[in-house]
Amino acid sequence: MPMNLIESLHAIVGPAGFVNLEDGEPYLTDWRGRYHGKAMAILKPANTEEVARVLKLCAAHGIAVVPQGGNTGLVAGATPSEAGDSVVVCLSRMANIREIDTANYTVTVDAGCTLARIQEVAASVDRLFPLSLASEGSCQIGGNIATNAGGTAVLRYGNMRALVLGIEVVLPDGRIWNGLRGLRKDNTGYDLKQLFIGAEGTLGIVTAAVLKLHASLRARACAWVAIESVSAAIALLEHCRSACGDGLTSFELISRSQLDVVYEQVPGTRDPLDGSSPWALLLELADSASDAPLQATLETVIGEALEAGLAVDAVLPASETQRNALWHLRHIVSEANVRCGTSVTHDISLPISKIPECLADTEARLLDAGLVDGARFLYVGHVGDGNIHSIVLFPHEVWSTVGDKDALISQIGKIVNDTAVSFGGSISAEHGIGRAHRDELVHYKSDVELDLMKAVKQALDPEGRMNPGKLL
């Protein structure tokens, strides 16, 4: 990049928004540490106008742009390539709460706001923003939008597409589309915001959003349930939905093998029960009415499940501290796995009825292929919406003996994804495609779907400068 162009970019964002490349490692490496890129420049603009000026300048010089939020993604969707021919645009300085409209149940925020801050702001006005992720303290809402994030409350509230009413986007040529409308009904043509939600920054940079709020939850009831099989989990889910209706907010499945890794790797964690069952469920009811009899309802449901043989044991926390401890076991799994070894993680989505058979078939195929010697099968997922994180964990000492690591990851991924698709599923439920799964997408999308996606990309980013090498 010519020095005068670097100077022009520096002038746009100022000293506070220009990251020296020698300090750039956090922006050039993905969260798991598998991908390491290079960049011509790393910029942290302070507002939408600066983003627009950066993109306009990059367009004039044919420079690629890699948008980045909290860099907590699991598919390297915000990591530049090793070519070093792009500019990273990180939105972390854009963290303003623009407006709270309590009557309209909306909050308008900059894309660099962390998810946790938005949750806190909503709570401060007696409202709820229900998106909940393990990385909520550091992930940014722009990245959540770009990846159509899911999390633990999709069962009740939907994923990011259901939580966004309007967005502001800087297009590849530097133009700003202000679509910050807090409307639940707007039947005036194509719903353009949906093009950018889940597009992983390949069509433009989301710089702000109008988010849908909900009534605060004043009553909760939580349970940790030991079960013998995934089939039992599906049956219990049906029972809970019938008995609890919309009060059922979360229904999380965790394998014993995954819990063992957590207990081994994370000090202070312990099994809420006796540790003998092969599977556990973490489920939660919630209501906006403080006097809702959720505890009694859940006790009845769990009692019926125990009597019917769907559950073998259960514990209901008696305090908020105990409830948080249970959720900590669920949210700490990724960190525990990183400490233990290298995870070949998959983010499949399935029809709920097909989950048990698909998981069993996948394990059998991997064992038959001889690809998982010394590895551990781990599972954690949002069973209520059909999203299972199927993980093959290689302990550090095993992974160090693997020769062609990329080939092994690819072979394992092909079996897991082929099996999921054969059961009517998808290879990505909430993590996205990014760089990690880009080459796989062509095997699972029809020619018609790919043609339509490419047509959208061509229309909005004809030069292919937005987040190149990702998604398509």
TrEMBL record:
Family of the protein in this entry: Belongs to the FAD-binding oxidoreductase/transferase type 4 family.
Residue ranges annotated for the FAD-binding PCMH-type domain, each copy included: 35-216
Superkingdom, natural source: Bacteria
Record flagged with keyword DNA-binding: no
Keywords: FAD, Flavoprotein
Name listed for the protein in its UniProt record: FAD/FMN-containing dehydrogenase
A Pfam family matched in the record: FAD-oxidase_C
